[in-house]
Write a structure and sequence with these properties.
2 strands, two-stranded antiparallel ribbon, 320 residues
């Protein structure tokens, strides 16, 4: 018990210190880099949900569903309901995304492999079709969102980017700490056991279907938060948020990260944003090729993902 408490304290302390360092560093970053990190952290949350499902032995190709649900919720709440606080918008986006995913959780948890992936993708594409045809929600063009407030204060032009950065980093850090604790909990370890031998876990009395359904809803919540934070940073939402290529980006990041580490999801998301930004600037007609080469290099030299770089150190007493 004392060892578990010590490990929990180290996890929380490391997360808080890292978040504080990022918040301080944010004031020294150029605007474009602060925006890039904000986008990487927000979308890293969505990929973290896929990492959670990967630990259970399934992969979702439809996280665009909850990403768009969270983004549209934040934009609608801001423009039509008068909710302007960034923290409240992010939490509302996550809650609505979880509610959207919940009715399908028990059904989709019955499937494995390609069937799980394709069913999740189908759900995302259904939402894409609805958003595309809905003139009330802006149709194919989507609609814009104004600048949110924070604790009742609307930041000025000089502080708007940093405020978005700070909110995103803070919420991402809280979620990352919570997910690390969940991964190390009994339920989190049962998920790993189910990934290796589902039948044995069932014989021991745990319901793998219930476990995957729960993880699917948790992934939806943090994915919805990521969508809301992305829309607040961009100031715009559109149906492409739920398109299959967007879901593919999230799977791309999850593969890069691997299922061992929480931080790796954000590192991989940042790497993707950096590679995409610079390759599109220097190779505008072949930037997808640069992304493909990058992914192949990671798979070749780090087959278990970026998180495997510090997995051994963590097992020896560190945190990841």
């Amino acid at each position: 018990m004392r060892a578990e408490s010590s490990a929990l304290f180290r996890t929380v302390a490391a997360g808080v210190l890292l978040a504080a360092a990022l918040l301080v560093a944010g004031r020294m970053l150029p605007t474009w880099l602060a925006f890039l990190v904000s986008m990487a952290a927000a979308q890293g949350l969505v990929s973290l949900g896929i990492v959670l499902l990967m630990r259970s032995g399934v992969v979702s190709f439809g996280q665009g569903l909850v990403f768009a649900a969270g983004g549209y919720t934040a934009a609608i709440a801001f423009g039509r309901l008068g909710i302007t606080d960034a923290l409240l918008l992010a939490l509302t986006g996550g809650a609505v995304a979880a509610l959207v995913a919940a009715p399908f959780a028990w059904l989709i948890a019955r499937y494995r492999g390609i069937f799980f992936a394709m069913l999740s993708l189908a759900l995302s594409m259904v939402l894409y079709g609805l958003l595309l045809k809905s003139q009330t929600l802006g149709g194919s063009d989507g609609f814009n969102m104004g600048r949110p407030t924070l604790f009742g204060v609307r930041p000025g032009d000089d502080w708007s980017t940093y405020t978005s950065y700070a909110v995103t980093v803070t919420l991402s850090s809280i979620v990352a700490i919570a997910m690390r604790v969940y991964f190390d909990s009994t339920r989190g370890l049962v998920a790993l056991a189910a990934r290796d031998n589902e039948i044995r876990v069932e014989y021991l009395g745990s319901s793998v279907q219930a476990l995957i359904a729960t993880n699917y809803v948790i992934a939806a919540f943090i994915g919805g938060m990521g969508g809301a934070l992305t829309v607040m940073a961009l100031g715009h939402v559109e149906p492409d948020f739920s398109f299959w290529t967007r879901s593919g980006d999230f799977v791309f990041v999850a593969i890069l990260a691997g299922h061992h580490s929480v931080i790796a999801a954000f590192v991989a998301s940042t790497a993707l944003e950096v590679v995409r930004s610079f390759s599109s600037a220097y190779f505008p007609n072949s930037w997808q090729l640069a992304l493909g080469v990058f992914l192949l290099a990671v798979i070749r030299f780090l087959p278990r993902g970026i998180g495997s770089l510090w997995e051994t150190r963590r097992r020896s007493g560190g945190q990841a």
